[in-house]
Amino acid sequence: MDTGGPARRVIDDRFELVGRLGGGGMGVVWRARDLTLHRDVAVKEVRPPDPGLAEYDPEAARHLRERVLREARALARVHHPNVATIHHIVDDGEGTYPWIVMELVTGGSLQNRLDKGPLTPGEAARTGREVLAGLRAVHAAGIEHRDVKPANILLRPDGRPVLTDFGIAAGQEFTSLTATGSIIGSPDFMAPERVAGRDGGPAADLWSLAMTLYVAVEGHHPMRRGNTLATLAAVLGEDVPPPRFAGPLTGLLTALLVRDPEARPDAEAVDRMLAAVAEGKGAATAAAAVSTTTATSYRLPPPAAPPAAEPGAGGAAQAPTRPPAGPGAQRRRRVPGLRALAVTAAFAGTVLSGAALWNLLPDSGGDGDDSGAGPRGRVTAAPSPSTTSGGSPAGEPVNADDAGDNDDAGNGDEAADLLTPEGIRTAVAELEKVMGGTTVTQLAIYEEYAIAQAPVKGDKKLYDRFTYRAGSDAAVHDGAGGTITDGTVPVDLGEYDWDAVPGLLRRAERTLGVEKPTMRYVLVSPASTVFDTGPSMNVYLTDDYGGAYLKATPEGEVVATYPRENG
């Protein structure tokens, strides 16, 4: 690394640090200039909460470094418009911590937006649904966010939310307590199970999303207290008070903000309810959107009764008056009494092991991390691609009744499903118009959108990103992507047999061991001269616990199957 003197720091001889954007439990984020691609990026300087970790516990420091690299690489494989893109990883080897280079999101954070005033239920639902889509994508990759809050949801200039600051490497062993007694994460947005030191899983991220939406519509945080211990005690031992201004969102918030993670609706049910609210279908329809899909797994509490209406002019009922907006006007509930203090004492004895102090890390204000900062979470090991297992032997063709079938193979509304031959052809045709061709280095096709990476015209080393959403009039150019991996041989989408996709999806449902997938997608991968592999069409099925996939040739012939382990 060339520091370039006291006034200039250049990382990896390429990324010049311009200014500090924010900091948190796992490092500092900088705005930087990519001197090679001539663009601004966000660079996260990863470092542990305990500065002396490498000295007094070198094994833990080594483990942290390995986890950072593993999880950053896993997140780098997530291509989703609501997740900040990782461009590059700088790793100087043993004894150092990596630098993570990410896209720079310039529209400010959701927290910045909320400082100007609360959102309507419809606005919150639309934002929440896109954030949920990003969460589902990272959960499918085996990553948990662990710190969903308004400051970690950035907004693109068009208002689209982007998940950032996954707080790389704060897995279970790093989440609860560090050697200095700090917690990694924001106590007021953490799910009770994580506060208690347990590994929360995807359900804990859904709690944090619900709390974010609660704050967005109510204009205050219901569990925040005068100090960190009191806040933690409230999260552990108190019920979340019913929202007053959530309207049709009330049922969902009530269902998600319960201490038992098993009682919370799953991501698919949450998406259905957010969609109903976003489309203005009202509280009853929104509640039905959840109850019809999850009636066997939990009971949806009835929406809280609205505050008593006061007679207005002519006896008309008036809506309750919303508290003034802004951080200085947030309502504070009374510091908990004896019962909460008893919980605090018990919590301090079991989790803090005596007199260790808890330090509240930066959250929604001040020096919060409002940059494009990267990943936190536990990674579920993916099946090894070096061997073929389960399902069928390599080279076995798709069954005759599985191939060339144009019926609907997706989960969602047929009219909005791109995972059909016609849907894929439409997406490819629209992408071709903005890409100037059908040559790509990767294409990911989901039910509602497709994301392509295409080489930059005149430069074989760089690629741009493009997105097409189902039902849109046209695809869009999302901007610069990054550097094409050495050995990548771009592929022509015209060489793929999209008629084979429905059969591949059915084959995946039978052989991958994912009984109730919440997400399915097709990933078109290029050939590689480095790994001596040809182009492929991979079909993925995922749920909240991970995923599995099968690999096929561009013609639809299955060559490998990687089912869920123990599935």
Automatic annotation (TrEMBL):
<dbReference type="InterPro" id="IPR008271">
    <property type="entry name" value="Ser/Thr_kinase_AS"/>
</dbReference>
<dbReference type="GO" id="GO:0005524">
    <property type="term" value="F:ATP binding"/>
</dbReference>
<keyword id="KW-0808">Transferase</keyword>
<dbReference type="InterPro" id="IPR000719">
    <property type="entry name" value="Prot_kinase_dom"/>
</dbReference>
<protein>
    <recommendedName>
        <fullName>non-specific serine/threonine protein kinase</fullName>
        <ecNumber>2.7.11.1</ecNumber>
    </recommendedName>
</protein>
<dbReference type="InterPro" id="IPR011009">
    <property type="entry name" value="Kinase-like_dom_sf"/>
</dbReference>
<feature type="region of interest" description="Disordered">
    <location>
        <begin position="366"/>
        <end position="419"/>
    </location>
</feature>
<feature type="compositionally biased region" description="Acidic residues">
    <location>
        <begin position="402"/>
        <end position="416"/>
    </location>
</feature>
<feature type="region of interest" description="Disordered">
    <location>
        <begin position="297"/>
        <end position="333"/>
    </location>
</feature>
<dbReference type="InterPro" id="IPR017441">
    <property type="entry name" value="Protein_kinase_ATP_BS"/>
</dbReference>
<dbReference type="Pfam" id="PF00069">
    <property type="entry name" value="Pkinase"/>
</dbReference>
<feature type="binding site">
    <location>
        <position position="44"/>
    </location>
    <ligand>
        <name>ATP</name>
    </ligand>
</feature>
<keyword id="KW-0067">ATP-binding</keyword>
<feature type="compositionally biased region" description="Low complexity">
    <location>
        <begin position="372"/>
        <end position="395"/>
    </location>
</feature>
<keyword id="KW-0547">Nucleotide-binding</keyword>
<dbReference type="GO" id="GO:0004674">
    <property type="term" value="F:protein serine/threonine kinase activity"/>
</dbReference>
<keyword id="KW-0418">Kinase</keyword>
<keyword id="KW-0723">Serine/threonine-protein kinase</keyword>
<feature type="compositionally biased region" description="Pro residues">
    <location>
        <begin position="300"/>
        <end position="309"/>
    </location>
</feature>
<feature type="domain" description="Protein kinase">
    <location>
        <begin position="15"/>
        <end position="274"/>
    </location>
</feature>
